[in-house]
Amino acid sequence: MVADLVLSRLIGSPLQAPLEWLRHLAHKVQCWREPGLADVLAEGQRTRDLMRSLISANTNCIDIGAHLGLMTCDMVRLAPHGRHIAFEPVPHKARWLQRKLPQVNVQQAAVGAVSMTTAFALSEDDSANSALRPNENTQASQMIQVRCLSLDDLVAPDHPIGFIKMDAIGGEFDILRGAHRLIMRDRPVLLFECTPNGTRAFGVDPAELFRHLTGTLGYWVYSLSGWARKEPPLDERRFLAAQVYPFEAFNFVGLPMAAGLARDSVSLPGRTPATAESARLDLAA
Quick one: DSSP state of residue 214? Predict the structure, then answer.
């Protein structure tokens, strides 16, 4: 808990930038030692590049699995006029976020297919790997009861969402099921984690998640490296291969098929196409 507290206070402080530079150097060394990790170690910077491209000043964002608030702070910075929601089920981290970001609706809760109270595996030594369904990477120190909310129950139709980030240690498929009305109504950008160990702890194969996104919801799926390289969206074979060493991705972006997204352009309904590098989309308008 002490390490989490220190890191939470560094986020958004003047020390954040030099610490991120040091982490970047450490990643360079790690890539030199293990080239197969290059793409996944670059995901942090690529995520920020993606967010700068797709979030405008008025975009309403949701951060699921907010942890210490790194991405929530980015959302607030990129969309200062947006109405943001952050979910963090670990009690002490939710309290820190509520104090640090009073302009954000911070919910001490997990997110899933239905709203209920449920058991949650809390890892005090590695709180980032706390989860609704423990997997082989979860070292749970205790089980606690937490609220679990569905986005369809919480988010009103008059609060259009433009960007959703999901890091739920395998619970992403349940989150999508519980946000079906919201997603079909608002067509937000979806930034999500997918690893075989995580999804299978919920009884879901990664292929099932991919088919739900591309079939039921009508989204193209890109790896962050593929988006950065202006590659076409992934098919199912490449999506599954991306999660096998040498890894291409642990995190992916979903964009609505109706947007007619080409490799080098962004064009959402009602928006003028722009290059991916320069696009600043008010997705919540």
Answer: I
How far, in Å, CA of 79 to CA of 96, rounded?
21
280 falls within a domain: no
Q: How far apart are CA 70 and CA 216, in angstroms?
A: 31
By residue range, what is the domain housing residue 96?
A: 2-275
How many domains, the chain?
A: 1
CA 139, CA 127: separation in Å to the nearest integer? Answer: 9
Stretch (H or E) spanning 192:
strand 189-193
Amino acid identity at 75: M
* Cα–Cα distance measured from residue 84 to residue 76, given in angstroms and rounded to the nearest whole number: 8
Structural domain includes residue 284: no
pTM score: 0.86
**Residue by residue, what is the 3-state secondary structure of 107-121?**
ECCEECCCCEEEEEE
Q: State the pLDDT at residue 14.
A: 80
